[in-house]
Amino acid sequence: VQLQASGGGLVQAGGSLRLSCTASGSFYIIDKMGWYRQAPGKQRELVASIISGGRANYADSVKGRFTISRDNAKNTVYLQMNSLKPEDTAVYYCNAVIRITSILPFEYWGQGTQVTVSS
Q1: Angle, alpha carbons 115-10-66 (nearest 5°)
Q2: Hey, which of 61, 94, 102, 108 would disulfide with 21, CB 3.0 to 4.6 Å?
Q3: Mean pLDDT for each 10-residue chunk of the chain (119 residues)?
Q4: Which contiguous run of DSSP H or E holds residue 8?
């Protein structure tokens, strides 16, 4: 199983970016997909996650600005980031909990994608 993320870049404060992450390989079902971020000198933190039924969870710092969505048919998760702030600057990592069989879930990480917000 591999997670391929894309969509990072440089944007001015107040701007928008959309991240995408697609899971590929052979598996039974994707339980949860989400995004974490890590800024220099800080710990990795959850940004948003979404379960297979569509219920989403957000960090307080991004509520009202970021929207996570999921296309189950494409095994893809999106993160629409609006009203970006310089403090959103970080490497963003795609994360997924995937069942290879019907029983055991495993956690996977994609490669990071840099998001830089200039003031």
Answers
A1: 50
A2: 94
A3: 95 98 94 96 97 94 98 96 98 96 90 96
A4: none
